[in-house]
Description:
It contains three helices and two strands, in the order H-H-E-E-H. The protein is of the alpha+beta class and 71 residues long. Strands 1-2 form a two-stranded antiparallel sheet.
Amino acid sequence: NMMMEKFPRLIRKVNVDKDPELALKIGITAIPQLVIVEVGDDSEETEIDRLRGAQPKAKLLEFFNKYGNGK
């Protein structure tokens, strides 16, 4: 939750049990998993990075800081 507060533009939570079709579309094979996508002018999403598995806070901050500043 701290990461969602710090990086509100970057984080959207997907419940794989409630939305298995979206999980399949994104290619979620294990949880937790973070996927960074870029949204083009035509609203098409392109994956640019992925981080799988539980990570320490420092690794998560490093990952998110590559793609945008926190609040």
